[in-house]
C-alpha cells in the first residue's frame, strides 16, 4: 500500500500531499484550489519537474492563482456574464469587462478544499460545496476532485458533481507543462500531436466565434507530430489574435487524442479524456512572476467554452439531481 505524505504548504489552512509510485514518479497536490503542484519524473537519475509550480498558497496568490488549479464551476469565459437556464436569465459575477472568467471572483482555485486520503488506491480526494447563488451560479453544487497516481505512471483526474438546482457546470484543470523541466525555455520545440480535424476560432475579444474551422492547411493542424513553434509567432490571424494558442480543439473519439514529446525526446506525455475538447494555452501573456511567455502549455480537458451561450457547442447544463462526470489523465513515458 502506498504511503501518502502530507506537509504544511504556506498558511495554516494549506497542505501539500505527495503521491509516489514504485517507478519513482511523484506528484504533489494541495488542497488550496484542489491543485496539481509538481509532477516529478526520474530522468537520467534525477527528478525532473514538468509542472509549473509555486512554493505555497501565498506564493500562488501573489503570482498566478490559476496555475495547476481546479477551475469550477465553469472554466473559460461566459459572454455577457449571463446565460439562460431553462428559460430563466441567470447573471454571474463580472470579473472581466462584460463577461465572467473562470467562474468569477474567489472561485474554486482559491478555496481550501476538504481532503480524503485513500492510500490503498494512491488517491487524494478533494471536496467542495458551492452554496446556492455563489457568484450567481444556482446550487448548492457538491464537487469532488479525485487524483490518482498509477503504477503505469498515469495521473488520473476525475471530477464529479451534483446540484440541488438546475445550473451549468464545465470544470477543468489548469496545469501547465514544460516537459524539458526548464521553465525558462520556450515550449516551441515540443512535438505535439492532436487527433482533431477541427478547432474553435476566437474573436478579437478572445471569445469563441461559435464556429468550428478545419485544421487543414493551418498552424492548428497537429494530426501528425509537429512543433508547437508553428503557431507561436505565426502570422495566421488566429495565432495573432492571442499571440500563440488559446484555442479549443474538437477531439476525435480515440483512446489517445493528444501526445507531446519533450525536445530531448526523453519524456512523452499521453493525454486521455472523456471530454469533447482540449484547450491549449501557450502562456502568451508573460513574462510574469511565475514564468516567461511561451514557456509552458496547458491541456485543459472540458466542454466547449461559452457553450451555455452558443448553439451547436453542446450542453453544459447540470440538472437538479443529475450527476456530472469528467475524466482525463496524463500518462508519462520516460
UniProtKB/TrEMBL annotation:
What name appears for this protein in its UniProt entry? Aldose 1-epimerase
Any idea which UniProt keywords this protein has?
Carbohydrate metabolism, Isomerase
- Read off the lineage from the record: Bacteria, Bacillati, Bacillota, Bacilli, Lactobacillales
Q: In which pathway does it act?
A: Carbohydrate metabolism; hexose metabolism
Q: Which residues bind beta-D-galactose per the record? A: 174-176, 246
Family label:
Belongs to the aldose epimerase family.
Q: Which organism is it from?
A: Streptococcus minor
Q: Which reaction does it catalyse?
A: alpha-D-glucose = beta-D-glucose
Q: Which residues form the active site?
A: 174 (proton donor), 300 (proton acceptor)
Amino acid at each position: 500500500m502506498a504511503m501518502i505524505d502530507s506537509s504544511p504548504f504556506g498558511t495554516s489552512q494549506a497542505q501539500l500531499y505527495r503521491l509516489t509510485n514504485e517507478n519513482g514518479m511523484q506528484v504533489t497536490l494541495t488542497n488550496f484550489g484542489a491543485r496539481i503542484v509538481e509532477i516529478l519524473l526520474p530522468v537520467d537519475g534525477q527528478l525532473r519537474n514538468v509542472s509549473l509550480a509555486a512554493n505555497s498558497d501565498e506564493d500562488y496568490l501573489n503570482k498566478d492563482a490559476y496555475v495547476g488549479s481546479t477551475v469550477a464551476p465553469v472554466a473559460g469565459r461566459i459572454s455577457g456574464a449571463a446565460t439562460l437556464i431553462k428559460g430563466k436569465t441567470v447573471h454571474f459575477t463580472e470579473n472581466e469587462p462584460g463577461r465572467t472568467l473562470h467562474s468569477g471572483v474567489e472561485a474554486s482555485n482559491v478555496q481550501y478544499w476538504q481532503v480524503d486520503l485513500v492510500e490503498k488506491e494512491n488517491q487524494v480526494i478533494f471536496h467542495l460545496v458551492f452554496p446556492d447563488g455563489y457568484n450567481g451560479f444556482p446550487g448548492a453544487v457538491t464537487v469532488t476532485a479525485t487524483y490518482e497516481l498509477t503504477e503505469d505512471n498515469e495521473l488520473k483526474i476525475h471530477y464529479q458533481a451534483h446540484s440541488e438546482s438546475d445550473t451549468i457546470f464545465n470544470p477543468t484543470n489548469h496545469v501547465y507543462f514544460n516537459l524539458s523541466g526548464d521553465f525558462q525555455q520556450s515550449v516551441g520545440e515540443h512535438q505535439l500531436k492532436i487527433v482533431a480535424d477541427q478547432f474553435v476560432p476566437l474573436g478579437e475579444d478572445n471569445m469563441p466565434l461559435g464556429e468550428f474551422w478545419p485544421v487543414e492547411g493551418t498552424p492548428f493542424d497537429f494530426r501528425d507530430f509537429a512543433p508547437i513553434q508553428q503557431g507561436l509567432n505565426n502570422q495566421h490571424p488566429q495565432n495573432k489574435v492571442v499571440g500563440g494558442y488559446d484555442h479549443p480543439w474538437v477531439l476525435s473519439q480515440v483512446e489517445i487524442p493528444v501526445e507531446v514529446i519533450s525536445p530531448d525526446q526523453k519524456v512523452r506525455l499521453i493525454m486521455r479524456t472523456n471530454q469533447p475538447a482540449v484547450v491549449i494555452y501557450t502562456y502568451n501573456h508573460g513574462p510574469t512572476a511565475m514564468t516567461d511567455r511561451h514557456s509552458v502549455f496547458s491541456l485543459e480537458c472540458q466542454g466547449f467554452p461559452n457553450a451555455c451561450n452558443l448553439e451547436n457547442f453542446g450542453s453544459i447544463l447540470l440538472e437538479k439531481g443529475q450527476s456530472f462526470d469528467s475524466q482525463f489523465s496524463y500518462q508519462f513515458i520516460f
